[in-house]
Design brief:
- This is Phosphatase.
- InterPro entries: Prot-tyrosine_phosphatase-like, Tyr/Ser_Pase_IphP-type, Tyr_Pase_AS, Tyr_Pase_dom.
- It comes from Hoyosella rhizosphaerae.
- Belongs to the protein-tyrosine phosphatase family.
- With about 230 residues, the chain is an alpha/beta fold.
- The chain has one domain: Protein tyrosine phosphatase superfamily (Protein-Tyrosine Phosphatase, Chain A), CATH 3.90.190.10.
- The protein is globular and about 55 Å long.
- About 35% of the residues are buried.
Length: about 230
């Protein structure tokens, strides 16, 4: 099982070397068309568009902020950026299209006949919640789920270094960008709070929000825990 940011031109060879047979793409139509996934010959692509029913404005606002210092000050210091991302995390849990996408991910993993890779664009938010769902099915405790969710920060900091550099050249403090470019404990907690409010707990979310039955959950555990004693 592998997770990733968007797959670049060199990824097909890399994925072939580790035997990936299924790639789950969590991105939107626009993202997929602008940067198609490079996959090895014979690998299956499964689309699980988390934002299929949503029009997200965060990326456009972020791009505007990098060009407009006045807008940047408002967007980053007023809490607008953080609220935009928190809204997305609530919808991960509650919105029907997002629920269907995460269900597709779980069912694909449950029925996999080889290594699976799932990815979005940056590999942190949509991919991070997908990893959280899969690990929760495997019985991982919530604190460990949070630790894993936050563990991508060094990788995404490296991925976004050109953006940080461009922002610095425009006089924007690095920490202003963190709500958009870094995962945050508050984002994770926003999703957890939505689960408690809407379903009562994580297991109820899996059963009633994602419609994951016992057989599917057992199959996922078998995939994730293969080789464990």
């Amino acid at each position: 099982m592998f997770r990733s940011a968007q797959l670049g031109s060199a990824s097909a060879e890399e994925l072939q070397s580790i035997g990936v047979s299924t790639v789950i793409d969590l991105r939107t139509d626009v993202e997929r068309n602008s940067r198609p996934s490079a996959v090895p010959p014979g690998a299956r692509i499964v689309v699980a568009d988390v934002f299929v029913n949503q029009q997200r404005s965060t990326a456009a606002q972020f791009a505007q902020a990098l060009q407009d210092p006045v807008f940047a000050a408002e967007f980053f210091t007023s809490g607008s950026a953080e609220r935009e991302v928190q809204s997305a995390y609530r919808l991960f849990v509650t919105e029907e299209g997002s629920q269907k996408a995460f269900r597709t991910i779980v069912e694909t993993v449950a029925n996999a006949d080889g290594p699976v890779l799932f990815h979005c664009t940056a590999g942190k938010d949509r991919t991070g919640w997908a990893a959280t769902v899969l690990l929760a099915i495997a019985g991982v405790p919530q604190q460990t789920l949070l630790d894993h969710y936050l563990s991508v920060i060094p990788a995404t900091d490296e991925l976004f270094q050109p953006i940080y550099q461009a922002a610095a050249e425009r006089g924007l403090p690095r920490e202003w960008l963190h709500p958009v470019l870094r995962v945050q404990p508050s984002f994770f907690q926003t999703a957890i709070d939505a689960i408690v409010q809407e379903f009562g707990g994580f297991q109820e979310y899996l059963r009633h929000g994602l419609d994951i039955d016992a057989d599917t959950a057992n199959a996922v555990r078998g995939v994730l825990l293969a080789g464990q004693k």
